[in-house]
Protein backbone atom coordinates (compact mmCIF):
# COMPACT_ATOMS: atom_id res chain seq x y z
CA UNK A 1 0.00 0.00 0.00
CA UNK A 2 2.87 2.35 0.85
CA UNK A 3 4.65 1.57 -2.43
CA UNK A 4 1.41 2.27 -4.30
CA UNK A 5 1.06 5.63 -2.57
CA UNK A 6 4.70 6.48 -3.33
CA UNK A 7 4.24 5.43 -6.99
CA UNK A 8 1.05 7.49 -7.31
CA UNK A 9 2.70 10.55 -5.74
CA UNK A 10 5.79 10.17 -7.95
CA UNK A 11 3.63 9.82 -11.06
CA UNK A 12 1.76 13.00 -10.07
CA UNK A 13 5.08 14.80 -9.49
CA UNK A 14 6.30 13.66 -12.93
CA UNK A 15 3.04 14.75 -14.56
CA UNK A 16 3.30 18.20 -12.90
CA UNK A 17 7.01 18.50 -13.84
CA UNK A 18 6.33 17.48 -17.44
CA UNK A 19 3.32 19.78 -17.71
CA UNK A 20 5.02 22.80 -16.10
CA UNK A 21 8.23 22.40 -18.12
CA UNK A 22 6.22 22.14 -21.35
CA UNK A 23 4.18 25.21 -20.43
CA UNK A 24 7.36 27.11 -19.48
CA UNK A 25 9.19 26.21 -22.70
CA UNK A 26 6.16 26.93 -24.81
CA UNK A 27 5.72 30.34 -23.13
CA UNK A 28 9.42 31.12 -23.46
CA UNK A 29 9.57 30.29 -27.18
CA UNK A 30 6.37 32.14 -28.00
CA UNK A 31 7.83 35.21 -26.23
CA UNK A 32 11.09 34.68 -28.10
CA UNK A 33 9.18 34.50 -31.38
CA UNK A 34 7.49 37.82 -30.56
CA UNK A 35 10.96 39.32 -29.98
CA UNK A 36 12.11 38.02 -33.37
CA UNK A 37 8.99 39.40 -35.04
CA UNK A 38 9.72 42.83 -33.52
CA UNK A 39 13.12 42.97 -35.27
CA UNK A 40 13.33 45.70 -37.95
CA UNK A 41 13.43 44.59 -41.59
CA UNK A 42 16.70 46.41 -42.23
CA UNK A 43 19.95 45.81 -40.30
CA UNK A 44 20.64 49.57 -40.05
CA UNK A 45 20.70 50.55 -36.39
CA UNK A 46 19.13 47.29 -35.23
CA UNK A 47 21.96 46.30 -32.86
CA UNK A 48 19.81 47.10 -29.84
CA UNK A 49 16.94 44.91 -31.01
CA UNK A 50 19.32 42.10 -31.98
CA UNK A 51 21.00 42.48 -28.59
CA UNK A 52 17.59 42.16 -26.90
CA UNK A 53 16.93 38.94 -28.81
CA UNK A 54 20.36 37.69 -27.75
CA UNK A 55 19.68 38.54 -24.06
CA UNK A 56 16.26 36.93 -24.22
CA UNK A 57 17.86 33.76 -25.59
CA UNK A 58 20.60 33.78 -22.94
CA UNK A 59 17.92 34.17 -20.23
CA UNK A 60 16.24 30.92 -21.20
CA UNK A 61 19.18 29.03 -22.66
CA UNK A 62 20.05 26.97 -19.56
CA UNK A 63 16.45 25.84 -19.09
CA UNK A 64 16.15 24.96 -22.78
CA UNK A 65 19.32 22.84 -22.64
CA UNK A 66 18.11 21.05 -19.49
CA UNK A 67 14.58 20.42 -20.76
CA UNK A 68 15.09 19.66 -24.45
CA UNK A 69 17.51 17.93 -26.78
CA UNK A 70 20.77 19.88 -26.79
CA UNK A 71 21.21 19.69 -30.58
CA UNK A 72 17.90 21.54 -31.00
CA UNK A 73 19.04 24.24 -28.54
CA UNK A 74 22.41 24.53 -30.31
CA UNK A 75 20.66 25.23 -33.62
CA UNK A 76 18.87 28.22 -32.10
CA UNK A 77 22.10 29.39 -30.44
CA UNK A 78 23.83 29.29 -33.86
CA UNK A 79 20.97 31.23 -35.46
CA UNK A 80 21.13 33.90 -32.72
CA UNK A 81 24.89 34.19 -33.26
CA UNK A 82 24.35 34.60 -37.00
CA UNK A 83 21.77 37.34 -36.33
CA UNK A 84 24.18 39.26 -34.07
CA UNK A 85 27.04 39.14 -36.61
CA UNK A 86 24.78 40.08 -39.54
CA UNK A 87 23.30 43.02 -37.56
CA UNK A 88 26.75 44.37 -36.76
CA UNK A 89 28.03 43.85 -40.34
CA UNK A 90 25.04 45.64 -41.87
CA UNK A 91 24.72 43.10 -44.68
CA UNK A 92 20.97 43.26 -45.45
CA UNK A 93 20.84 39.97 -47.36
CA UNK A 94 22.65 38.09 -44.61
CA UNK A 95 20.55 39.84 -41.94
CA UNK A 96 17.25 38.84 -43.64
CA UNK A 97 18.48 35.26 -43.99
CA UNK A 98 19.57 35.19 -40.32
CA UNK A 99 16.16 36.46 -39.10
CA UNK A 100 14.41 33.89 -41.32
CA UNK A 101 16.63 31.08 -39.98
CA UNK A 102 16.10 32.10 -36.35
CA UNK A 103 12.34 32.27 -36.88
CA UNK A 104 12.35 28.87 -38.57
CA UNK A 105 14.46 27.23 -35.81
CA UNK A 106 12.23 28.72 -33.08
CA UNK A 107 9.07 27.52 -34.81
CA UNK A 108 10.66 24.09 -35.21
CA UNK A 109 11.42 24.04 -31.47
CA UNK A 110 7.82 25.02 -30.63
CA UNK A 111 6.61 22.18 -32.84
CA UNK A 112 9.18 19.79 -31.28
CA UNK A 113 8.11 20.40 -27.67
CA UNK A 114 4.37 20.47 -28.35
CA UNK A 115 2.63 17.24 -27.17
CA UNK A 116 0.62 17.09 -30.40
CA UNK A 117 -0.74 13.92 -32.01
CA UNK A 118 1.80 14.34 -34.83
CA UNK A 119 4.72 14.50 -32.37
CA UNK A 120 3.60 11.65 -30.12
CA UNK A 121 2.94 9.23 -32.94
CA UNK B 1 9.35 16.38 -22.41
CA UNK B 2 5.59 15.83 -22.60
CA UNK B 3 6.13 14.01 -25.89
CA UNK B 4 8.70 11.70 -24.26
CA UNK B 5 6.35 11.05 -21.31
CA UNK B 6 3.35 10.25 -23.53
CA UNK B 7 5.52 8.04 -25.74
CA UNK B 8 6.77 6.14 -22.66
CA UNK B 9 3.19 5.40 -21.55
CA UNK B 10 2.17 4.30 -25.06
CA UNK B 11 5.26 2.11 -25.57
CA UNK B 12 4.62 0.47 -22.17
CA UNK B 13 1.04 -0.38 -23.16
CA UNK B 14 2.07 -1.65 -26.60
CA UNK B 15 4.92 -3.78 -25.23
CA UNK B 16 2.63 -5.25 -22.59
CA UNK B 17 0.13 -6.24 -25.30
CA UNK B 18 2.92 -7.76 -27.40
CA UNK B 19 4.35 -9.74 -24.46
CA UNK B 20 0.86 -10.99 -23.57
CA UNK B 21 0.37 -12.06 -27.20
CA UNK B 22 3.74 -13.83 -27.17
CA UNK B 23 2.29 -16.16 -24.57
CA UNK B 24 3.60 -17.58 -21.34
CA UNK B 25 6.27 -19.71 -22.94
CA UNK B 26 8.39 -16.72 -23.93
CA UNK B 27 8.35 -15.04 -20.56
CA UNK B 28 10.49 -17.28 -18.34
CA UNK B 29 10.54 -16.29 -14.70
CA UNK B 30 9.10 -12.77 -14.94
CA UNK B 31 5.48 -11.68 -15.08
CA UNK B 32 4.53 -9.96 -18.39
CA UNK B 33 4.45 -6.46 -16.88
CA UNK B 34 7.82 -7.05 -15.18
CA UNK B 35 9.35 -8.19 -18.47
CA UNK B 36 8.00 -5.10 -20.23
CA UNK B 37 9.45 -2.88 -17.51
CA UNK B 38 12.83 -4.61 -17.80
CA UNK B 39 12.84 -4.24 -21.59
CA UNK B 40 12.00 -0.52 -21.46
CA UNK B 41 14.26 0.38 -18.54
CA UNK B 42 17.39 -1.10 -20.07
CA UNK B 43 16.89 0.96 -23.23
CA UNK B 44 15.82 4.35 -21.87
CA UNK B 45 18.34 4.39 -19.07
CA UNK B 46 21.18 4.02 -21.57
CA UNK B 47 20.14 6.94 -23.80
CA UNK B 48 21.34 9.89 -21.64
CA UNK B 49 24.47 7.90 -20.74
CA UNK B 50 25.45 7.31 -24.38
CA UNK B 51 24.43 10.66 -25.85
CA UNK B 52 25.50 13.89 -24.19
CA UNK B 53 22.95 15.87 -26.20
CA UNK B 54 20.08 14.03 -24.48
CA UNK B 55 19.27 15.76 -21.18
CA UNK B 56 19.33 13.64 -18.03
CA UNK B 57 15.63 14.33 -17.45
CA UNK B 58 14.84 12.43 -20.69
CA UNK B 59 16.20 9.35 -18.96
CA UNK B 60 15.01 9.95 -15.40
CA UNK B 61 11.40 10.92 -16.18
CA UNK B 62 10.56 7.83 -18.32
CA UNK B 63 12.39 5.48 -15.91
CA UNK B 64 10.51 6.76 -12.86
CA UNK B 65 7.25 6.82 -14.87
CA UNK B 66 7.65 3.20 -16.01
CA UNK B 67 8.45 1.98 -12.49
CA UNK B 68 5.45 3.89 -11.07
CA UNK B 69 3.15 2.47 -13.76
CA UNK B 70 4.47 -1.02 -13.01
CA UNK B 71 3.84 -0.60 -9.26
CA UNK B 72 0.32 0.73 -9.86
CA UNK B 73 -0.43 -1.98 -12.47
CA UNK B 74 0.77 -4.77 -10.17
CA UNK B 75 -1.25 -3.35 -7.27
CA UNK B 76 -4.39 -3.05 -9.39
CA UNK B 77 -3.96 -6.54 -10.85
CA UNK B 78 -3.66 -7.92 -7.30
CA UNK B 79 -6.90 -6.17 -6.31
CA UNK B 80 -9.04 -6.44 -9.46
CA UNK B 81 -9.26 -9.96 -10.99
CA UNK B 82 -10.33 -8.63 -14.41
CA UNK B 83 -7.23 -6.41 -14.57
CA UNK B 84 -5.05 -9.31 -13.43
CA UNK B 85 -6.29 -11.29 -16.42
CA UNK B 86 -5.34 -8.38 -18.72
CA UNK B 87 -1.93 -7.56 -17.21
CA UNK B 88 -0.74 -11.01 -16.13
CA UNK B 89 -3.09 -13.65 -17.59
CA UNK B 90 -4.27 -16.78 -15.81
CA UNK B 91 -2.77 -20.22 -15.15
CA UNK B 92 -3.56 -22.97 -17.67
CA UNK B 93 -4.19 -26.57 -16.68
CA UNK B 94 -2.19 -28.82 -19.02
CA UNK B 95 -2.79 -32.15 -17.25
CA UNK B 96 -5.88 -32.90 -15.21
CA UNK B 97 -6.06 -36.14 -13.26
CA UNK B 98 -3.50 -37.81 -15.48
CA UNK B 99 -5.13 -36.73 -18.75
CA UNK B 100 -3.29 -34.28 -21.01
CA UNK B 101 -5.48 -31.42 -22.23
CA UNK B 102 -4.38 -31.42 -25.87
CA UNK B 103 -6.38 -28.31 -26.81
CA UNK B 104 -4.79 -26.33 -23.97
CA UNK B 105 -1.36 -27.65 -24.92
CA UNK B 106 -1.92 -26.35 -28.46
CA UNK B 107 -3.28 -23.04 -27.17
CA UNK B 108 -0.15 -22.53 -25.04
CA UNK B 109 2.07 -23.69 -27.94
CA UNK B 110 3.71 -26.35 -25.79
CA UNK B 111 4.73 -29.58 -27.53
CA UNK B 112 4.31 -32.96 -25.85
CA UNK B 113 8.11 -33.34 -25.86
CA UNK B 114 8.50 -30.09 -23.95
CA UNK B 115 5.81 -31.11 -21.47
CA UNK B 116 7.50 -34.49 -20.95
CA UNK B 117 10.84 -32.75 -20.48
CA UNK B 118 9.31 -30.47 -17.81
CA UNK B 119 7.77 -33.47 -16.07
CA UNK B 120 11.07 -35.37 -16.13
CA UNK B 121 12.77 -32.29 -14.68
CA UNK B 122 10.38 -32.55 -11.76
CA UNK B 123 11.07 -36.25 -11.30
CA UNK B 124 7.92 -37.52 -12.99
CA UNK B 125 8.30 -40.11 -15.74
CA UNK B 126 4.68 -40.75 -16.63
CA UNK B 127 1.92 -38.13 -17.21
CA UNK B 128 -0.46 -40.68 -15.69
CA UNK B 129 1.23 -40.03 -12.32
CA UNK B 130 0.33 -36.34 -12.49
CA UNK B 131 -2.82 -35.13 -10.80
CA UNK B 132 -2.43 -31.58 -12.04
CA UNK B 133 0.16 -29.88 -14.25
CA UNK B 134 -0.42 -26.14 -14.39
CA UNK B 135 1.34 -23.64 -16.60
CA UNK B 136 1.70 -20.54 -14.41
CA UNK B 137 1.41 -16.94 -15.62
CA UNK B 138 5.18 -16.63 -15.85
CA UNK B 139 5.54 -19.73 -18.06
CA UNK B 140 6.78 -22.20 -15.46
CA UNK B 141 4.98 -25.54 -15.10
CA UNK B 142 3.91 -26.63 -11.62
CA UNK B 143 3.31 -30.34 -11.12
CA UNK B 144 1.15 -31.95 -8.45
CA UNK B 145 1.57 -35.70 -8.43
CA UNK B 146 -1.08 -38.32 -7.66
CA UNK B 147 -1.14 -39.18 -3.96
CA UNK B 148 -0.23 -42.77 -4.87
CA UNK B 149 2.89 -41.70 -6.78
CA UNK B 150 4.40 -39.57 -4.02
CA UNK B 151 6.65 -41.05 -1.31
CA UNK B 152 4.95 -41.49 2.08
CA UNK B 153 5.49 -38.65 4.52
CA UNK B 154 6.29 -38.93 8.26
CA UNK B 155 2.65 -38.14 8.96
CA UNK B 156 1.61 -41.04 6.70
CA UNK B 157 3.95 -43.32 8.70
CA UNK B 158 2.58 -41.93 11.98
CA UNK B 159 5.98 -40.63 13.10
CA UNK B 160 5.73 -37.46 15.14
CA UNK B 161 8.48 -34.96 14.47
CA UNK B 162 8.97 -31.73 16.41
CA UNK B 163 8.92 -28.65 14.18
CA UNK B 164 12.37 -27.08 14.02
CA UNK B 165 11.13 -24.11 12.07
CA UNK B 166 13.55 -21.77 10.37
CA UNK B 167 17.05 -21.21 11.62
CA UNK B 168 17.86 -17.52 12.08
CA UNK B 169 21.18 -15.75 12.25
CA UNK B 170 21.67 -14.32 15.75
CA UNK B 171 25.33 -13.31 15.48
CA UNK B 172 27.14 -12.76 12.21
CA UNK B 173 30.88 -12.06 12.32
CA UNK B 174 30.66 -10.80 15.92
CA UNK B 175 27.63 -8.56 15.27
CA UNK B 176 24.33 -9.25 17.03
CA UNK B 177 21.23 -9.31 14.80
CA UNK B 178 18.58 -7.84 17.14
CA UNK B 179 15.83 -8.10 14.51
CA UNK B 180 16.21 -11.88 14.28
CA UNK B 181 16.56 -12.11 18.04
CA UNK B 182 13.19 -10.45 18.61
CA UNK B 183 11.65 -12.52 15.78
CA UNK B 184 12.52 -15.60 17.86
CA UNK B 185 10.96 -13.97 20.97
CA UNK B 186 14.38 -13.81 22.63
CA UNK B 187 16.21 -10.89 24.15
CA UNK B 188 19.81 -9.94 24.80
CA UNK B 189 19.76 -11.30 28.34
CA UNK B 190 18.90 -14.74 26.88
CA UNK B 191 21.75 -14.33 24.41
CA UNK B 192 24.19 -13.27 27.16
CA UNK B 193 23.18 -16.35 29.19
CA UNK B 194 23.78 -18.67 26.23
CA UNK B 195 27.12 -17.04 25.51
CA UNK B 196 28.15 -17.32 29.16
CA UNK B 197 27.29 -21.02 29.08
CA UNK B 198 29.54 -21.42 26.06
CA UNK B 199 32.17 -19.14 27.66
CA UNK B 200 32.21 -16.91 24.60
CA UNK B 201 31.87 -13.21 23.75
CA UNK B 202 30.00 -12.04 20.59
CA UNK B 203 33.37 -11.02 19.08
CA UNK B 204 34.56 -14.65 19.30
CA UNK B 205 31.68 -15.90 17.15
CA UNK B 206 31.60 -16.16 13.37
CA UNK B 207 28.03 -17.50 13.11
CA UNK B 208 25.43 -18.18 15.75
CA UNK B 209 22.02 -19.46 14.68
CA UNK B 210 18.89 -20.38 16.59
CA UNK B 211 15.72 -22.13 15.37
CA UNK B 212 12.12 -22.07 16.62
CA UNK B 213 12.88 -24.95 19.03
CA UNK B 214 15.63 -22.78 20.59
CA UNK B 215 18.37 -25.11 19.31
CA UNK B 216 21.54 -23.04 19.03
CA UNK B 217 24.44 -23.65 16.70
CA UNK B 218 27.71 -21.73 17.08
CA UNK B 219 30.66 -21.47 14.73
CA UNK B 220 33.64 -19.80 16.36
CA UNK B 221 35.85 -17.31 14.54
CA UNK B 222 39.13 -18.63 13.26
CA UNK B 223 41.92 -16.81 15.10
CA UNK B 224 43.96 -14.69 12.75
CA UNK B 225 47.62 -15.53 12.63
CA UNK B 226 49.86 -12.60 13.66
Q: How many domains comprise the coordinates of chain B? A: 3
Helix content of chain A: over 70%
| Number of separate strands of chain B | 8
Distance between the termini of chain B: 62 Å
Q: How do the helices and strands follow one another from N- to C-terminus of chain A?
A: HHHHH
Class inferred from helices and paired strands of chain A: mainly alpha
Largest β-sheet summary of chain A: none
- What is the gyration radius of chain A calculated from CA atoms? 18 Å
Proportion of residues in helical segments of chain B: 40-55%
Q: For the largest beta sheet of chain B, what order do the strands appear in spatially?
A: 2-1-3-4
The total count of strands of chain A amounts to: 0
The count of domains of chain A is: 1
How are helices and strands ordered from N to C of chain B? HHHHEEHHEEEEHHEE
- Taken as a percent bin, the fraction of beta residues of chain B is 15-25%
Overall average pLDDT of chain B = 84
Q: Can you tell me the residue ranges of chain A where pLDDT is under 50 for at least 5 consecutive residues? A: none
Envelope shape of chain B? flat
Describe this structure in words.
The complex is a heterodimer of chains A (121) and B (226). Chain A is an all-alpha fold and 121 residues long. Chain A has one domain. Chain A is 85% helix and 0% strand. Chain A contains 5 helices and no strands. Chain A has helices at 2-37, 47-67, 70-89, 92-113, 117-120. In chain A, helix 1 runs antiparallel to helix 2 and helix 3 (70-89) packs antiparallel against helix 4 (92-113). The longest helix of chain A has 36 residues, at 2-37. The model of chain A has no long low-confidence stretch (mean pLDDT 88). Chain B is an alpha+beta fold and 226 residues long. Chain B folds into 3 domains: 2-87; 92-149, CRO Repressor (2-Layer Sandwich); 168-220, bsu07140 like domains (CRO Repressor), CATH 3.30.240.20. Chain B is 45% helix and 16% strand. Chain B is built from 8 helices and 8 strands; from the N terminus they run ααααββααββββααββ. In chain B, the strands form 2 sheets. A 4-stranded antiparallel sheet of chain B has the order 2-1-3-4. In chain B, strand 7 (205-210) and strand 8 (216-220) form a beta hairpin. In chain B, helix 1 crosses helix 2 (32-50), helix 1 packs across helix 3 (57-79) and helix 3 (57-79) crosses helix 4. The radius of gyration of chain B is 26 Å and the shape is flat. The interface between A and B is medium-sized, with 28 and 22 residues.
Amino acid sequence: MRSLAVAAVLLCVIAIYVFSSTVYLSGFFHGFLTEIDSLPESPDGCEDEAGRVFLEWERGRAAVIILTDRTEADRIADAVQRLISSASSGDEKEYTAAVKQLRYETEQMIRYISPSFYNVF
Amino acid sequence: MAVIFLRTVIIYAVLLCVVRLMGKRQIGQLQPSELVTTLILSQIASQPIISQSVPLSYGIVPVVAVVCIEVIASYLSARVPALKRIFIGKPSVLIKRGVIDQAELLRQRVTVEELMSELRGKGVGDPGDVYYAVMEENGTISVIQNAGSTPPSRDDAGVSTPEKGMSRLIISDGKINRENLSALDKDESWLKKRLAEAELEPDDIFIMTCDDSSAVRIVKKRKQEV
